[in-house]
Amino acid sequence: MPDELLDRLRRFHDDAFPQYRQQFQALVDEGQHPTTLFIGCSDSRLVPYLLTGAGPGELFLVRNVGAFIPPYDGSHGHHGTTAAIEFAVLNLKVRRIVVCGHSHCGAIKAMYGEVSPEAPNLNHWLDLGREALLPMQPGPEVLRRTEQRAVVLQLERLMEYPMVRSRVQSGQISLHGWHYVIEDGEVHVFDVQTGGFVPASQSDHSGTGPYQPYVEHDGQVLVDE
Ligand SMILES: [Zn+2]
């Protein structure tokens, strides 16, 4: 039986890695300095590097079921997402935080149904998105709206992290709410001015948080509320 995964590892090392060798060596010598914390759903169809054109060293990535943000108060117990946010903001000093949900999200759909009793952790985790639920039958339009509402809900929870809030308010960090439509290959970005999601092809910015106007990467405020 050929081990396909082993073949892929060898192919990466032999064929792909040589063209990146210098880049990775520099990232080892100088350390990583990613400017973006990308918090995305674990869904295999969401490929952050493809979407953003980012390469090695550019994205500090956190992925979990639903792209959810646990509360800062630790009430959800030990959590890797919370630890990653603290590390990215305090140690790496990222300038942007992207929260990226997507169409056909299994986590959002699961919130409208029963979760298996064998998955108590998943059930508890989904509590982080339940506020976004709509009191309707979960048809395609309701699911899409719920996916988008969940992104905004997570941005709001992110603002409860003191180190995030203070930096957003001082213009050091910008928040970006994204909803990726898999079948269109297009990200819809949250716009605080309209309270809705705008396709990237029609938006004049790459998304805003729930409270703050779009902040340019150098901290300059482009749009006043
Ligand atoms: Zn998902």
Description:
- By secondary structure, the chain is of the alpha/beta class.
- It has a domain at 35-45 and 71-202: Carbonic anhydrase (Beta-carbonic Anhydrase, Chain A, 3-Layer(aba) Sandwich).
- It is built from seven helices and six strands.
- It has helices at residues 4-30, 48-52, 80-90, 106-111, 120-126, 140-158, 162-169, and strands spanning 36-41, 59-64, 96-102, 174-181, 186-191, 196-199.
- A six-stranded mixed beta sheet has the order 2-1-3-4-5-6.
- Strand 5 and strand 6 (196-199) form a beta hairpin.
- It is globular and about 55 Å long.
- The protein starts with a helix and ends in a 26-residue tail after the last strand.
- The relative contact order is 0.12.
- The model is unreliable at 214-225 (pLDDT under 50).
- Zinc ion is lined by residues 41, 43, 66, 102, 105-107.
- Residues 198-218 are annotated as: Disordered.
- It is an enzyme of class 4 (lyase).
- InterPro entries: Beta_CA_cladeB, Carbonic_anhydrase, Carbonic_anhydrase_CS, Carbonic_anhydrase_sf.
- This is Carbonic anhydrase.
State the gist of this model.
The chain has about 220 residues and is α/β, with parallel strands linked by helices. Helix content is about 35%, strand content about 15%. Zinc ion binds near residues 41, 66, 102 and 107.
What is the oligomeric state here? single chain
Overall average pLDDT = 92
Based on Cα principal axes, name the global outline.
globular
Strand content: 15-25%
Give unreliable regions as ranges.
214-225
Secondary-structure element string: HEHEHEHHHHEEE
Main pleated-sheet profile: 6 strands, mixed
The N- and C-terminal alpha carbons lie at a distance of 61 Å
Strand order, sheet with most strands: 2-1-3-4-5-6
CATH level 3 topology of the domain at 35-45 and 71-202: Beta-carbonic Anhydrase, Chain A
- Total count of strands: 6
| Named CATH architecture of the domain at 35-45 and 71-202 | 3-Layer(aba) Sandwich
Name the CATH class of the domain at 35-45 and 71-202.
Alpha Beta
Please compute the radius of gyration using only Cα atoms: 19 Å
Bound molecules: zinc ion
Number of helices: 7
- Assigned CATH superfamily of the domain at 35-45 and 71-202: Carbonic anhydrase
Structural class: alpha/beta
* Helix content percent band: 25-40%
